[in-house]
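Dock magnesium ion; give full complex structure.
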Amino acid sequence: MPPVIEKLLKFLRLEADRGYDNRSVLGGLDQMLDPWQEEARQQDVPEAVIQVVVSRLRDYPQLTPASRKEVLGGIGARLRNAYPDLVGETQAAPPARAPAVTPQAEPQPPAPRPARDPDPVAAPTWNRTESSSLGLQVPVGTSPAPSADRLPADSQVAVPSDVPSDAENAPAAEPASDVAVRGVWERAEAGEDADWMEDALEDDELEDTPGSADAPRRPAASIPQAQPAGPAAQSGPAALAAPLTTISGIGPKSAENLSRLGLVTLGDLLWYLPRRYDDYSQLKTINRLWYGEEVTIIGTVQEIHLRPIRGGTMKLIDAVVSDGSGALRVTWFNQPWIAQQLTPGRAVVLSGRVDQYLGKLTMSSPEWEPLERQQLHTNRIVPVYGLTAGITPKWLRRVVNAVVERYASRVPDPLPLSVRQSAGVIPLPQALQQVHFPDSADSLQRAQARLAFDEMLYLQLGVLRQKQDWTALTTDPLPVEDGWVEHFRSALPYALTGAQQRVLHDLRQDLASGRPMNRLLQGDVGSGKTVVAAGAIGIVAANGGQSALLAPTSILAEQHCQTLRDLLPTACSIPVERIGLLLGSTPDSEKEAVRRALADGSLQVVVGTHALLEDPVVFQRLALAVIDEQHRFGVDQRADLRAKGNNPNLLVMTATPIPRSLALTLYGDLDVSVLDEMPPGRQPIETRVLRPPERSRAHRFIEAQIEQGRQAFVIFPLIEESEKIDAKAAVEEQRRLQDEVFPTRKVGLLHGRMRPDEKDKVMEAFRAGALHILVSTSVVEVGVDIPNATVMMIEGANRFGLAQLHQFRGRVGRSQYASYCLLLPDTEDEASSERLTAMEATGDGFRLAELDLEQRGPGDFLGTRQSGFAELRMARLTDIHLIEKARREAQRLFEADPGLAAPEHQELSAAVARFWTGGKGEIS
Ligand code: ADP
Ligand code: MG
């Protein structure tokens, strides 16, 4: 340990011994900081450690003795992390087993303290440091006990508030004198928390549960492993199922409030993870803020105004907050109550992103909390939990702390030691404790990594099991001769690409195998997935089975039905009248006829939308379900379709390339085929991002294309969260384009609120070339195939995701004609955004999908909720490193013990089951 650290320790011990009177250094502890820093740097003390010490001691003189104690505890914990050998050195007292703190043992400046021998490590040198190389002066004397005349002026009233008052905190495990010699280090070691945590126990005492007296209290560094099975181990998990009212600070009213957050049992609370953290050791002053950074600042409200805006429909709160170094403008929208709570003069903690407005830094809608003194002085990372009415942040923190302290260490760790070691993760009890009340940013990160690993491991174990379950199923084999395939290929109007032939071969093998196909067909827009699906449908029909093709929109369903009616009669000898269509809008009498024909087997193929899934639809022998653009469907819908047959074969198709991370997770149980080759003669689609003033250029370009006989799409985004307003905007745009921009051309309109027969008419007219331009909302996003269309112009392009833009773009470039995609964002700024320029730079749907996933997260990317499992709270579906690690471990576990039946896997097996019943349905 560098001498400079040793020296620091001596001062700090002395300070603790003196009852935190800030007299261990003449002039106050903060006076030594400058020379100390310099020396520490010379001795190569890590900068992070120096910063911790300096930032925490800077305002030491202003703190109450209680806060001082806590600050020193924090520094001690940090130094122990940095210099592990410190632990041994300072552990003169017996290892801390229980918080051996009694009121009389606690240093209380006004009270005379028992005379005693000084700590053998700390004491001998304190008065020799008088003329240390730090150039510091210390009071000369031999007794560390403070005398009355040295007490700070305010000490008479500053009775430490952290004296635990309940029995739990004062076990007579250790003699008082032992306690007294233990300095701040040992107490920190024993896990004695900051005041605001300890006062959880002041008024919210815990009912003692059997065995808890022996439970270690939140040791910071050495949480015991989960207990081995036995009576003691049983009490842990069982106790977690107890209602929250078990905690005596929580009455029926509070329990009811907490239940609104879904918190009913102690276990719920233990797993109620912080929404975010405020790192009060990283506070910034206003004059040091940078545009764009996420920060927490503390300041005083100077002024605050509530102003109606937008003609009174919204309210803007406009405040100025200053902290002595500068002032910051802060705004909130439509939260008028803030103006009542944040009156001028109040101190407030703000967390959020630093914005810019008219060249000045601002914060808009930051998280805020009235400042509590404790927050400022905790000097630690403070958890911030989601709240509900009747629950204050402080109260909830205390309650969580009480539960964490009491129960975290007793949570059994589901991971066998071998897995934990090979994955390099910390034990679960420690992770739970640190995720709530982290000792440092590092340990928080390790805690989060552990929890994320668990989630991903459970996910992977479930995926592997599901895959195994499915491969264990059997179904009728549906083989065809080579001659059948030859005939199919020769009857098509074009030659299949190599990729199409390969995939068709995959499908043929799957169908003949006697095990249900469970395959994802992935192919960029325009790669020709439909004809491959048609081949599979043909194979099934040749064996007397029925097929259903499910499409997300009626436009697409009709188009597919048309394609199949063109292809199947000649290529697969399925008569047109045996190919049916079932949409939500199909008249009842017709629906009834289709249902009857499916039930008696006279229909061999049915194409439809979700209407197909409605209960009355029964198949005679459903052998194949094809789901097109599968990401638009929910998990439940796929399960419904599956349930309509006896282990039917399943083929899901997507044009949205699935990044590797998702292929290993959400789709991990599927076999994958890829169409990675475009039909010949396709031209790359030239993509341009235009600035808003260039709109008329785009219109002239469209005009020129129409002149050459081509057609164009113009897409308008969802403008409001309402289809009605959305439709109205499209209606207006169509009128404007027709009347003002293209008066000599025919401009059609398509939007989601049109009647199905109206939509059909419009699509037919566009397909037949009777319309030159089709104005549309996002209903043409998927699948629509109009080869003569060569321009895709997208208004408000910035509002779409990349995968979606790529889908739109795929509506053109479907013929030998050169095609174009014109992107018009709402603002000039957006025109140069990374997202849109990526569209210009690459036509690679895979690359765009990865980018999209990174930028928007899996929820939006997938469009619908896909998972059959509990929500991932820590793991990210984009974290390929984590996914691969978890997969590796899952595979090892699975190979060794597929059913997780071994005794040492019981906890794990239960955890996986919980994880998978947290969601519902299946992955497919
Ligand atoms: P997607 O994969 O986007 O669903 P489609 O199945 O709609 O693509 O096919 C796009 C277009 O390409 C259709 O007009 C289809 O007839 C045509 N097509 C498919 N395969 C070939 C091929 N091998 N050669 C030429 N054109 C093809
Ligand atoms: Mg398609």
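Observed: The longest strand covers residues 294-309.
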